[in-house]
Structure formats: C-alpha cells, structure tokens
Amino acid sequence: MSEANSPVIRAHALDLTFQTADGPVHALKDVNLEIAKGEFVSFIGPSGCGKTTFLRCVAGLEQPTGGTISVNGMTPDEARQARAYGYVFQAAGLYPWRTIGRNISLPLEIMGYSKADQKDRVSRVLDLVELSGFERKYPWQLSGGMQQRASIARALAFDADILLMDEPFGALDEIVRDHLNEQLLALWARTEKTIGFVTHSIPEAVYLSTKIVVMSPRPGRITDVIDSPLPKERPLDIRDSPEFIEIAHRVRDGLRAGHADD
Ligand SMILES: Nc1ncnc2c1ncn2[C@@H]1O[C@H](COP(=O)(O)OP(=O)(O)OP(=O)(O)O)[C@@H](O)[C@H]1O
C-alpha cells in the first residue's frame, strides 16, 4: 500500500480495561478500524459504549491495555507531540475573560508562535468557521452555536490534518445543529481534513459521514461499520431520500442488535 493510501488512523485488536473501585470496566474490546485520509467517520452508540474512550486513545489521552493503534504512522503520543490533531469537546470551553481571537490564539501563544503568525492563523480559522468580524467579541456575546464554531476554530489553529470532535453539537437545539452540520460539511470539503466525530444522533451521523461506526456497550465494541454511498455534496433535504433512510435503518438495526444481548 502506498504512503498516500495508508490509513491515517489504524486500530488493531484494541482493548482498554479501566481498573475502578467497583472492579474492572471493559471500555473497549477488540476494536479493529482503519480510517483513510479525508474520511468523515462518526461513532454512534449508547452511553458508555466507549466512543469517547476510543477518541481519547487516538489522541494519546488514554493508554490501551491491549492491541495497537497508530496515527499518521506514529504512536498516538508521538502524533500528539507532532500536533497531528485538533480536539473539540462537547462544551465550547472558551475563557470568558478572553476575546474570541485571544481564546483561539491561546494554544498558539503557549507553543510560542510569533505574534504575526498567531494573527494570521486566527484570522484564517475564523474565516473557515464563518466568524470573521467576531475576533474582538467575548464568548458571552455569541450564541451557543457561534461559541461552538469558535471552539472548532481553536482546534483548527495548528492546521492539524485530523479533527477529533466529541459530541460538539449535542447541547444545541435542532435548527442550530442542522446549520452547524451544513457548515461542518462545507469546512470538511474545503480543508480535506480527516474527521472523527462522536454523536448520539442517527440523522447527524448519516448526514455527515463517509463511514459510520456503530458501537455497543459492556464491553464497548464495534458492531457495524457502514461505508456511506451518499454523495459528498449533501443538501439538508438529502435526509428525505430513500438512500439516506436506508442507511439510518441499518444504523438503528446495529444499535438494536447491540442492545439485544444486554
Ligand atoms: N477514566 C475512567 N476511569 C474508569 N472508567 C472509565 C473512565 N473513562 C471511561 N470509563 C468507563 O468506560 C466506559 C466507556 O466510557 P465512554 O465515556 O468512552 O463512553 P461513551 O460511549 O463515550 O459514553 P457517552 O455517550 O455517555 O459519552 C463507561 O463505562 C465509563 O464509565
């Protein structure tokens, strides 16, 4: 396989058991997954099935207890040091006393980027998330959806190839979420990033993804991987198409099958 086609993220027989006061928790069991460059991969499954844990393994924030995982051909730890990814959390997590611009530049300041470089990067990523002109506003002056876009901008500031997003729109109402989903697809098309996206929403997973990973709990494992046949161009009303509904059914079936052996 050529370098260009080799997977950006490769997990093989990945296992993770947390030792807790109540005994071991088998958070991930025999997870095998390959994610190619430029894919948009959603992870869907009930609470506790290991979606966040998997993303944190990719990010080098959790140590697997078995199996292997590589990111850009490196260990997750090396990839983190090489700033291979940006991470977006469920809550925007912006500092209220800093302007939007200075929230986005904070990681760059910490890493010692020059003032000029910080300024360029902040203005480029604000443009990418359609927040140009809001640089000097404070987080509380922005709506919830705009704050979440600002946190995406912050994750993009290092220009990493991989964007890891843990239920970034979970707390937002449906209309705002639809709009952000459209904007995220446009951003993905423009930047050609590889995206790993955790969600509880079947329509969101189907609308956004080129690949949908269905997971189930106790122990956390993959029950289905669906390669989406939907075109890259996706107007919101694609959700009414037979193809879309068929994939949504398959995801739902996968989720049900995962529950059947509870
Ligand atoms: N640091 C930890 N120590 C002990 N147990 C943990 C830790 N992190 C996660 N777990 C457990 O591992 C399992 C998987 O958790 P994880 O957060 O990955 O699930 P999830 O699918 O992301 O859930 P949710 O949708 O609720 O965010 C759960 O049973 C959780 O309680």
TrEMBL record:
Keyword Signal assigned: no
Gene3D superfamilies with a match to the protein in the record: P-loop containing nucleotide triphosphate hydrolases
Residue ranges of domain ABC transporter in the record: 11-238
Molecular function as annotated in GO: ATP binding; ATP hydrolysis activity
Domain of life where this protein originates: Bacteria
Pfam families: ABC_tran
Keywords: ATP-binding, Lipoprotein, Nucleotide-binding, Transport
Family: Belongs to the ABC transporter superfamily.
Protein name: Sulfonate ABC transporter ATP-binding lipoprotein
